[in-house]
Amino acid sequence: MIQELTDCGPSRTYPVYYLEDAMNNLGDCFDYAVNDYGAEGSEVAELFCLSGVAREFERGNAWVVSGKSGVELFALIAERSGYQSGSIPDRTYRFEKTPEYWTGWILAYLQWRLGESFEDLLHVVPFDALRSLYYPWHEASEERVARLVCDMAKKASRQTKLALARKKLKKTQQDLAYESGVSLRSIQMYEQRQRNINEASVTTVRDIAKALHCNIEDLLEPVFEYKETSAA
User: Which residues, other chains included, contact 60 with Cβ-Cβ below 8 Å and sequence gap of 6+?
Assistant: First the structure.
């Protein structure tokens, strides 16, 4: 399946020839972190995003995607986030792929295939929820899992990124309206999804982002649109 997906469409952030390495290495990273180091998978997933390593994956940084083993990836995440304490234990060889390996493996595929950030993917399907799909979905094709995740995203009841960013700074909607110059009603409608912030003017989103001390893309909602390919 992977070898057949040679097209690098607009949602693909790096060439397909890096994909197999990316999937194997991220799978090994989570497998090692949970089953050898003793970390919680959900915590490692959060640190993966916060450390900036996820962003480098998304950009297709060959040094990270293909140039590091799973153990080295975890060491990089731990170092950047201040998580590591003491020495890194040796990796245990396992004959079978673990659910944690599959979770990292399919997560790398989903990010590449759907073109969404790891942060947005894990917001819709948190690490533990994705891991719970291991039975029976580890026997399904990557494409079937991608379709499933898109369906889950559309049905998921979740707060908008705008609401999360506002609450993180402990601002009320009224505070944000005053500081951004965007009407209170507009703020409310964006947060309630009665209006699509992705379709707002650049000026509007820029002013809101400035008030929330974030980038415009931090407020845009993921689309999670599954597009068929000739190889699907």
Answer: 13, 14, 15, 18
